[in-house]
From TrEMBL:
Its EC number is 1.5.1.5, 3.5.4.9. GO terms for molecular function: methenyltetrahydrofolate cyclohydrolase activity; methylenetetrahydrofolate dehydrogenase (NADP+) activity. This is Bifunctional protein FolD. It holds the Pfam family THF_DHG_CYH. GO terms for cellular component: cytosol. Catalyzes the oxidation of 5,10-methylenetetrahydrofolate to 5,10-methenyltetrahydrofolate and then the hydrolysis of 5,10-methenyltetrahydrofolate to 10-formyltetrahydrofolate. Keywords: Amino-acid biosynthesis, Histidine biosynthesis, Hydrolase, Methionine biosynthesis, Multifunctional enzyme, NADP, One-carbon metabolism, Oxidoreductase, Purine biosynthesis. Homodimer. The keyword NADP applies. Belongs to the tetrahydrofolate dehydrogenase/cyclohydrolase family. It catalyses: (6R)-5,10-methylene-5,6,7,8-tetrahydrofolate + NADP(+) = (6R)-5,10-methenyltetrahydrofolate + NADPH; (6R)-5,10-methenyltetrahydrofolate + H2O = (6R)-10-formyltetrahydrofolate + H(+). NADP(+) binds at residues 166-168, 232. GO terms for biological process: L-histidine biosynthetic process; methionine biosynthetic process; purine nucleotide biosynthetic process; tetrahydrofolate interconversion.
Length: 300
């Protein structure tokens, strides 16, 4: 079998189009422009790239984009003051503090200082609790993007065996909650899981969020399964020339695509959907803040 390629880049463009339509209506009918603030601490080059492309796409859909770049030695007090001022700013509807933060800063403290209504990453403990109890919340962007692609590909997820590899707070755990919410039978695998290949072989849906280049190979995959590859790993690519690199996922694309029914590529899969969902969450937050109807199909 050769898997259907789930085109995250095209799907994300469609989602951004829906976001842009909603933004235009908010402006015309209500004179409101949704605003997204991104806070970046330090000079991590990979983070800089994400921040730049987020900023560009935010402006493209017609929203206001604000960036706060703080140097790596910024004190916790100063960072908390920036978040506080964004919480109080009526023109800002979404706040994202880029992770990871430099080691001297307490991530939990900083994330939980964001107004939960503006927490477009869905990392605040209030949003985590709301999601876990099936209540309306801000849903983390990467798992939301994965869920949208899965719902688009499957008529129903109900009763499917889903295995999520990885148990981080930003991807693995919220992904498992969303799949459970759609009535999958969910298993979370991690670094201590015994016989992980056998666990994954039982899955109709595999979501890999590990951070290990090409760890999952085709012989782990049940024939016909759907494979969502969250991993973003930069590896050396001497075949492209000296010192060159390329991006690969946590799944070995070639061998998995031979067995799977459908698979997301890296790049062009989950990554673009993450950014599209961030914009969608910002519009959702803006609508909720103003007591207006939310865009349909852009939340979990
Ligand atoms: N496309 C996108 O938009 C995004 C992509 N990413 C990418 O997704 C990947 C995961 O990110 P994140 O969740 O933040 O990573 P973390 O490092 O926070 O978590 C990795 C998880 O993988 C598990 N793990 C590590 N090694 C193994 C192994 N050998 N076998 C099984 N499980 C293992 C860990 O288990 P344990 O808990 O036991 O240590 C942990 O739960 C990364 O490549 C990251 O770059 C992340 C966010 C967004
Ligand atoms: N508070 C916070 N929220 C996040 O959502 C968050 C974060 N911190 N820290 C870093 C990770 C990583 N992340 C990505 C988003 C998009 C792509 C993406 O668009 N990738 C492109 C390729 C980009 C390239 O070529 O480098 C793709 O996969 O096609 C990748 C990774 C969000 N993260």
């Amino acid at each position: 079998m050769t898997a259907t390629v789930i085109d995250g880049k095209a799907f994300a463009a469609k989602v951004r189009g829906q976001v842009a339509d909603h933004v235009a209506r908010l402006k015309e009918d209500h004179g409101i422009t949704p605003g997204l603030a991104v806070v970046l601490v330090g000079e991590d080059p990979a983070s800089q790239v994400y921040v730049r492309s987020k900023g560009k796409m935010t402006v493209e859909v017609g929203m206001k984009s604000v960036e706060h770049r703080l140097d790596a030695e910024t004190s916790e007090e100063d960072l908390l003051a920036v978040v506080k001022s964004l919480n109080a700013d009526p023109e800002i509807h979404g706040i994202l503090v880029q992770l990871p933060l430099p080691g001297h800063l307490n991530e939990d403290l900083v994330i939980n200082s964001i107004d939960p209504a503006k927490d477009v990453d869905g990392f605040h403990i209030s949003n985590v609790g709301l999601l876990g109890t099936g209540q309306k919340s801000m849903v983390p962007c990467t798992p939301l993007g994965c869920l949208m692609m899965l719902r688009d590909h499957h008529e129903s997820l109900s009763g499917l065996n889903a295995v999520v590899i990885g148990r981080s707070n930003i991807v693995g755990k919220p992904m498992a909650q969303l799949l459970l919410g759609d009535s999958c039978t969910v298993t979370i695998a991690h670094s201590r899981t015994k016989d992980i290949q056998d666990v994954v072989r039982g899955a109709d849906v595999v979501v890999a969020a590990v951070g290990r280049p090409e760890m999952v190979t085709g012989d782990w995959i049940k024939p016909g399964a759907t494979v969502i590859d969250v991993g973003i790993n930069r590896i050396n690519a001497p075949e492209k020339g000296e010192g060159k690199t390329r991006l690969v996922g946590d799944c070995d694309y070639e061998s998995c695509a031979e067995v799977a029914g459908a698979i997301t590529p890296v790049p062009g899969g989950v990554g673009p959907m993450t950014i599209a969902c961030l914009l969608a969450n910002t519009v959702t937050a803006c609508c909720r803040a103003n007591g207006l109807a939310e865009p349909e199909g852009l939340t979990a």
